[in-house]
Amino acid sequence: FEAVGEVIELKENLFSAFSAIAGCSPAFTLMYVDALAQAGVKYGIPKNTALKIASQAVLGTTRLLQESGTHPR
Known about the structure:
By secondary structure, this protein is mainly α.
């Protein structure tokens, strides 16, 4: 599986929690990015530009979190 992403070994009793986090988070993240972009459009930013800004903000934040090792709060 490392060919398509990072492998994290978990005990079997944690599979349900993992599925909830990993399985649902893409949809929630996309909804969040869409909401950010829609707010940008509401205030005059072209749709494609607003979507790029929102998605880059999430991407940059994720990289910062992964590389810094700091707590997300």
